[in-house]
Write a structure and sequence with these properties.
globular; nine-stranded antiparallel beta sheet; alpha+beta; Lipocalin; Glutaredoxin; eight-stranded antiparallel β-barrel; Porin
């Protein structure tokens, strides 16, 4: 005889499943695109796009700059406060989430003096990177531009801009002698140009007037808390950076390079160790605070994976914010973890701001003024090439040229 389950039991199970689904749906949050603004005393706020998602118990935060996505780490909620760290750099944000329409807080960034902080606001569900009336663009400024920045002391510095514009949306970057400004994103509205980026180490804002299809004027560039420069540009498909007037060099070219520094665990490593003998060695002078060093490190980690079996070794020499070894090691470990670095990272003990940093650590080298700088050493231990700066993936074909230069230089030294 067939027996039927009591209706009460069936309804009890149904109600349990129904409310479990409802609870899960209520707890789940959709992705929310919001506008962040890093506030400056002069009123020139630096906007960025931040995407939040997750559940009430677990939040994810991603900062978007054009084609780049930066997922923040170690996100914690404590009452109405939210804390998050950037995956690289000595950088974190602290937000108060008590308002319905916005979060307010601070960006904490490592500095030679410890930490600097800048106030910021995040306006929830504000999808536009720039809060402005958008009208059809008068010009399309895609292409290469010759740029001139004017410092506060009225001195000039050259740059090259690369822009890709689709309708009102624009992305691109500026190339400088020491590297590039990475992933910039913004709008062209009428004859106005606006661009910005925020990666945890640097926050940049650009605006200008597009006077014609081949001329940009009245430009303003803002960086961090207070730095400002004026700029202008002329369209030039053949624009390139001038040859730097001061070239890095080696005092005695016939002598092998010599140095010893501790690694992140305190073990002394020398370029004369057995591991590096009769090898082509690529040495990166870097800092964990340096955005262009981040791009170069991402490339070098993969480069090492492909070339180490051919007789290539790499080393990273860190010039950090302070002489505190523990602080430097902690910051450089974030680099090692983020980019899966398998070659030694060493702490030089000299700060990036020390004008005598190279004389103190690598006295055989001269005229090294910027980060990153890359040194190519042949199998006999002699310096064969010194390359300043790094054009990262935001620069398009310049990045491809940079990668080819690295590979060609190493291939040539291996063939000897």
């Amino acid at each position: 005889m067939v027996q039927f389950r009591k209706p009460a039991l069936l309804w009890t199970g149904f109600i349990f499943i129904f409310f479990s689904v409802v609870h899960a749906q209520e707890n789940k949050k959709k992705s929310v695109v919001s506008q962040g603004i890093i506030q400056r005393p002069d009123g020139n706020g630096i906007p960025f796009t931040i995407i939040s998602s997750g559940t009430n118990d677990k939040t994810s935060l991603v900062i978007q700059n054009a084609d780049e996505r930066i997922a923040l780490k170690n996100i914690q909620r404590k009452g109405d406060s939210l804390f998050a760290e950037f995956p690289v750099f000595e950088s974190r944000i602290h937000l108060f989430t008590g308002y319905a329409d916005r979060w307010t807080g601070f960006w904490f960034k490592g500095s030679p003096a410890g930490y600097s902080l800048q106030p910021l606001q995040i306006y929830l569900n504000r999808h536009d990177r720039f809060k402005t009336t958008i009208v059809p663009p008068k010009y399309n400024i895609s292409g290469r531009w010759s740029v001139e920045f004017i410092r506060n002391d009225h001195s000039k510095r050259p740059s090259v801009a690369e822009f890709v514009q689709t309708g009102n949306h624009i992305k691109g970057t500026f190339l400088n002698l020491s590297g590039d400004y990475r992933y910039l994103e913004g709008i062209v509205s009428g004859d106005s140009l606006m661009l910005s980026t925020f990666d945890g180490s640097h926050a940049f804002y650009f605006r200008a007037l597009i006077e014609s299809g081949d001329r940009i004027v009245n430009g303003l560039y803002c960086s961090g808390t207070a730095r400002k420069e004026n700029w202008s540009a002329l369209k030039d498909a053949n624009a390139k950076l001038p040859d730097d007037s001061v070239h890095p060099s080696v005092a005695k070219k016939d002598e092998p390079l010599k140095f010893s520094f501790p690694d992140l665990d305190g073990k002394m490593i020398s370029i004369q160790d057995q591991r590096f003998r009769n090898k082509v060695v690529v040495i990166q002078l870097m800092g964990s605070w340096c955005s262009n060093c981040m791009d170069e490190t991402a490339f070098l980690s993969e480069f090492y994976h492909r070339n180490k079996s051919r007789g290539v070794e790499l080393m990273g020499l860190g010039y950090e914010y302070s002489t505190d070894r523990d602080r430097s090691a902690k910051s450089m470990r974030k680099f090692r973890e983020r980019f899966h670095i398998k070659y030694p990272l060493l702490i030089t003990g000299a700060t990036a701001s020390d004008s005598l940093r190279i004389q103190k650590t690598l006295p055989q080298l001269e005229n090294i003024e910027s980060f990153p700088t890359t040194i190519f050493v042949d199998k006999s231990g002699r310096v064969r090439k010194i390359h300043t700066g790094f054009s990262g993936p935001a620069t398009g074909e310049h990045y491809e040229e940079e990668k080819k230069m690295f590979q060609d230089e190493v291939d040539e030294l291996l063939s000897e």
